Amino acid sequence: MPLAQAELVGLYRRMLLIRRFEERCNALFLQGRIPSTLHLYIGQEAVAVGACSVLRRDDWVFGTHRPHGHALAKGVSPRIIMAELMAKVTGCCRGKGGSMHVGDVREGAFPAIAIVGAGLPIAAGAALSAKMRGTDQVAIGFHGEGAANEGDWHEALNMAAVWRLPVVYVCENNLYGASTHFSKAFAVAHVADRASAYGMPGEVVDGNDVEAVHDAAERAVARARLGEGPTLLECLTYRQCGHSRSDACNYRPDEEEASWKDRDPLKVTADRLSTCVPSVPFVPSDLETDVAAEIDDAVAFAESSPDPTPDDLLRHVFWEGD
């Protein structure tokens, strides 16, 4: 069933927030105001927003080394993400994690793990916790197609299937593991083709269509809540930037990039909204103004926040004493 227009406008705004947040991060990085590198989520917004739109606050998501979109989609404050990127003590990890480790457990977004595939067994662990406690919480483990060739991926999916855990594995297949094309690393047509080997459903989804992702995630999450076990969703999408800030992306054909940009997730959703019989106003310029103000506030909050002190180095760190 198509989403109600008001709900689709809400998903568009969330995608717009992620897009403009990432663009601002890129500008701040180039100005030297964000240390370390960045793995931007530009172009993949429909995956995180569509999947997280069917979750409750007490459900969990586990992000990747490209985690800003996952955190924002789950409801983490732009303020504390931006403060984390600027290494401030008000950041979501008190300035100790940086870009690849953002999250907020209060919102059900575990701080992301930068090691490829390493968050997937932990997502299974969270799902096992829910099953043992008798709740109907669900975990989502986001990952790229490159992670599907890691041992952690296979072990996590096998464990989730054998124990019928309430977890959904969402593969964001953006065609390139860093600079390696999917066709050079897989002998199957789709990552989802592997699901049957583990005894779980697998589905290929248009990852640039937020409604398609929402619908597939809704079915998978419903299965998980009913105790029917895990699902593997492969969302076909495309990053509109390099793998990281050091990647000039010279390995991708211009025609390929142009073709995917024609199906930009924001454009797809805006075009669909423009053809709807209006039940609520859809004024993109108003949403742009609203989102810009929210990001301006996040930047101002981060820049006015204190830097860590040397004494902060050993705060919130556990070690076994003498």
For this structure, the CATH topology is Rossmann fold
* Helix-and-strand structural type: alpha/beta
CATH architecture: 3-Layer(aba) Sandwich
Overall number of structural domains: 1
Q: For the CA atoms, what is the radius of gyration?
A: 19 Å
The best one-word shape is globular
Fourth CATH level, the homologous superfamily: Thiamin diphosphate (ThDP)-binding fold, Pyr/PP domains
Oligomer: single chain
Beta percentage is: 5-15%
* Beta strand count: 8
Task: Count the DSSP helices.
Answer: 10
Quickly name the level 1 CATH class: Alpha Beta
The main β sheet shows up as: 6 strands, parallel
Helix content: 40-55%
Strand order of the largest sheet: 2-1-3-4-8-7
Question: What are the segments in which pLDDT stays under 50 over at least 5 consecutive residues?
Answer: none
The average pLDDT is: 94
**N-to-C SSE string, H for helix and E for strand:** HHEHHEHEHEEEEHEHHH
N- to C-terminal distance = 62 Å
Notes on the protein architecture:
The chain has helices at 5-30, 45-52, 68-74, 78-85, 119-133, 151-162, 210-225, 254-261, 265-274, 284-304; strands spanning 60-62, 109-110, 139-144, 167-173, 176-177, 180-181, 202-206, 231-236. The chain is α/β, with parallel strands linked by helices and 322 residues long. It starts with a helix and ends in an 18-residue tail after the last helix. It has a six-stranded parallel beta sheet, with helices on both faces. The chain has a two-stranded antiparallel ribbon with strand order 5-6. β7, α7 (210-225) and β8 form a beta-alpha-beta unit.
